[in-house]
Amino acid sequence: MTSNIQIDGNPAFARIPPWVKAKLRPNAIEKIQQVHDWVETECIPAERIYKKQLEGNRWRTPAIIHELRKKAKAQGLFNLFLPNHFEESPGLTNLEYSCCAEIMGRVYWAAQTMNCHAPETGNIELLAKYCTPEQKKRWLHPLMNGDMSSAYSMTEPDVASSDATQIGIEMEITDKEVIINGRKLYGNCQYNEEMQLFILMGCSDPNNPNAWNRHTTLVVPAKTAGLKQVRNLTIMGYDWAPEGHGEYVYENVRVPIENIILGPGRAFEIAQGRLGPGRIHHCMRLIGQAERAYELALVRCVEPRKKPRGKFIGEFDSNIERIADMRMTIDAMRQVVLNAADTMDLQGNKAGRYAIAQSKIMVPNALLKVIDEAMQIYGGQGLTQHTPLPELWTYARFVRVADGPDSAHRHQVGRDQMKTAREFRARAEQYTERYKELCKKWGLEPEEFWGIV
């Protein structure tokens, strides 16, 4: 089967590198084109409609989202993220989905219209990978159908959650139920009626000598007695309604033992299976945000009402160079993310952890710089609601911390790289030995070489 869609000169594929285009299958080409058309014609023009509808009730999903979700589902644009090794998958590889997700990222909520938004992507993949058929029927299928939304509850206010072994919310497992007590941060808001379940990670076996086997993951229905939302957490002044970020207290919350996923003590196995895809999905969408900021900067550069000293803003050398830096930064960001997605396809999530961590560290930081430069081009107006730039910047800054701060990922990358140091030391010693042989041949006195005598 071949696709009849022309790739060359097509704006849907304009930024996709040649090595990626060569790997796209016909069905993926069709989906990328569909997603591009969807975001350009349905989402971007509706941004201000979404904002206006949200004014009436901050914690109710705007009506336009419900309408668009029905249309997207009818067009086969639902759950595109789920990798093709799952039976529930629509069939895309991680690399192919990357091209779709970048386009989705052009509007903060566009992914939601296609059921490809966080935390749904990570939660659905977790449930698809680890749940029993009965659990899938209860939780996975309604989530994939868009009948409800979910939250992932891991971060806590009282411990350093970047070291997940410190997670301390108490889980007492009896023969029939799990009793939960403690506090959590960042799960999506209970205020939104569509948010119906938490996937919760807690400590069920605190005395286990193996710190990696102390924790359990389970599902907690959002309306369970004893589960209370204390407040919504603003992120740098934004409430991020209608999903938000809740602060929660669990007081003797009881759920059936059947709600445990995979088994007691297996939370870390589950978390690692979830976080790889979740992290890379964030980065995929951030490329689209970067492109949006870049395009807004170009629009400003040729705004006829803004001509300081009689010149377009884009005619000043400083801004020409600024645009060049933005363009090259985004292109580099994309290569990093696509490489990570391709590595996951070829070698699996675990083998691709370096590429995933690299994306998680580099992409949000680079995006912050791109958006900041766009703000500079807009001047004071770039800091206001006249453009999406402040919200784009805030979201990028949040993603720098989501799924772990930069330092945690750098430590992982650096630790893995340090394991190769002895190999390079041995190679350097071989260089030195060969150098000494050459000195003897040419009658020279050996000197210290690479710090090795």
What would you note in describing this structure?
The chain has 453 residues and is α+β, with helices and mostly antiparallel strands. Helices cover 49% and strands 11% of the residues. The protein is built from 14 helices and seven strands. It has helices at residues 18-21, 26-43, 47-56, 63-74, 94-104, 110-113, 120-130, 133-145, 267-301, 317-347, 353-378, 389-399, 406-418, 421-442, and strands at residues 149-153, 170-173, 177-185, 195-203, 215-221, 227-232, 246-256. The strands form two sheets. A four-stranded antiparallel β-sheet has the order 2-3-7-6, with no helix packed on it. Strands 1-4-5 form a three-stranded mixed β-sheet. The protein is globular, with a radius of gyration of 25 Å. Belongs to the acyl-CoA dehydrogenase family. Its cofactor is FAD. Residues 268-415 form the Acyl-CoA dehydrogenase/oxidase C-terminal domain.
Topology diagram in text:
Elements: H1 18-21, H2 26-43, H3 47-56, H4 63-74, H5 94-104, H6 110-113, H7 120-130, H8 133-145, E1 149-153, E2 170-173, E3 177-185, E4 195-203, E5 215-221, E6 227-232, E7 246-256, H9 267-301, H10 317-347, H11 353-378, H12 389-399, H13 406-418, H14 421-442
Parallel strand pairs: 1-4
Antiparallel strand pairs: 2-3, 3-7, 4-5, 6-7
Helix pairs in contact: 2-5, 5-9, 5-10, 7-8, 7-9, 9-10, 9-11, 9-12, 10-11, 11-12, 11-13
State the helicity in percent bands.
Answer: 40-55%
Integer-rounded radius of gyration: 25 Å
Mean pLDDT: 94
In oligomeric terms, what are we looking at? single chain
Q: Give me the secondary-structure category.
A: alpha+beta
CATH superfamily of the largest domain: Butyryl-CoA Dehydrogenase, subunit A, domain 3
| Separation, N- and C-terminal Cα atoms | 63 Å
Number of domains: 4
Side by side, the strands of the main sheet go 2-3-7-6
Strand content: 5-15%
What is the number of helices?
A: 14
User: How are helices and strands ordered from N to C?
Assistant: HHHHHHHHEEEEEEEHHHHHH
Number of strand elements = 7
- CATH topology-level name of the largest domain: Butyryl-CoA Dehydrogenase, subunit A, domain 3
Question: How does the major sheet shape up?
Answer: 4 strands, antiparallel
Shape: globular
* CATH domain class name of the largest domain: Mainly Alpha
